[in-house]
Amino acid sequence: MTRVKEITSYLNEVFPFAYQESYDNSGLLIGNPDAHVKGLLVTLDVTEAVIDEAISLGCNVILAHHPIIFHGIKRLTGSSFEERTIIKAIENNIAIIASHTNTDNSAIGTNYHLAKLFDLHNTKPLLPLTDTLRKLVTFVPLSHEQKVKEALFSAGAGVIGNYDKTSFTVQGTGSFRGNEKTHGFSGTPNKLHFEKEIRIETIFPKHLEHKIIYALLEVHPYEEVAYDIFKIENTQENFGSGIIGELADEIEPSVFLKKIKTVLGGGIRYTDFHKDTIKKVAVCGGTGAFLLRTAIVQKADIFITSDVKYHQFFDADKKIIIADVGHYESEQFTKEIFFALIQNKFSTFAPRLSKINTNPINYL
Ligand SMILES: [Zn+2]
Question: Is there a shared CATH topology between the 4-102+333-353 domain and the 110-128+240-325 domain?
Answer without folding.
Answer: yes
